[in-house]
Amino acid sequence: MAKATKKQALGRGLSALLKDPDNDIQSVQDKDADKVIGNIVELDIDFIEVNPFQPRTNFSEESLRELASSVKELGIIQPITVRKLGFNQYQLVSGERRYRASKLIGLETIPAYIRIANDQESLEMALVENIQRQDLDPIEIALSYQRLIDEINLTQEQMSDRVGKKRSTIANYLRLLKLDPIIQTGMRDGFISMGHGRALITVEDQTAQLDIYEKILSNQLSVRNTEELVRNYGETKSVEPKPKKQSETVPTYIKEGIGAFSEYFGHKIDVKVSKNGKGKITIPFHSEEDFNRITKLVKGAK
């Protein structure tokens, strides 16, 4: 307990040092920089802005509320990491969930490690730290790898060294981005695993991908069952095709718009049109959780 109190007092002292405009630290060469960088500092939460390079885009409101309750009870156990932008200006590098949870319960300060980094270094730190987290979905990881390639110009070999992953593992994640967006959404929502996704990648035709994806969901197929289904498709080049009747031919205007419906709801949407122009849209769901998710989308809930 004595050590914790001493550490907190140190954080408050460093916080006062950072609020001195005559001693503004902007680089590692500046006076007293060694006292701040690498130490835990209590920062005013209003001085911190969200990182625009944050690779994570999904933040569950329920899990944030749970974390906020834990923070209220136990405090911030692991400090966030920020980079200094200017006097009393900081930007998150990692720890956005802790930052959001702290704001949710009205905390005025938050413990933080301060880094001095430029935009590129900040992006790289944020991406690498997020890749190493345990709770990211496979698509978030794949997108982070892709951003390291596109924006930091890292090769797969260099990424392997930075994140401590085999090059083959990185390549397998990147291949997931070739899947249809609907399937990627299903993986992000936890309806299928990375194993399912890797099996589906071998099917080049995206219509067939979606047909198999729907079979995985409706029949709750395991990865092994999915691999077998994909092998059968490779042999027959067909997944139980159902010939359309002439009356079921879909007009061009529907073909052009149905993709947006499917991507929004995260499922392949079925449309049937009669000769007189009237039609029916069918939205499938595969569990109570899935139905509730779709209901929120229809109601426009955030």
TrEMBL record:
Gene3D superfamilies, per database record: 1.10.10.2830, 3.90.1530.30
NCBIfam families cross-referenced by the UniProt entry: parB_part
Domain ParB-like N-terminal span(s) in chain numbering: 41-131
Highest taxon of the lineage: Bacteria
Record's keyword annotation contains DNA-binding: yes
One Gene Ontology term of the molecular function aspect: DNA binding
Keywords noted in UniProt: Chromosome partition, DNA-binding
Keyword DNA-binding: yes
Protein name: ParB/RepB/Spo0J family partition protein
Organism: Aestuariibaculum sediminum
PANTHER family, sorted: CHROMOSOME-PARTITIONING PROTEIN PARB-RELATED (PTHR33375)
Pfam families, per database record: HTH_ParB, ParB_N
Family: Belongs to the ParB family.
Any single biological process term in GO: chromosome segregation
Annotated signal peptide: none
InterPro entries associated with the record: Chromosome_partition/occlusion (IPR050336), HTH_ParB/Spo0J (IPR041468), ParB/RepB/Spo0J (IPR004437), ParB/Sulfiredoxin_sf (IPR036086), ParB_N (IPR003115)
GO cellular component labels: chromosome
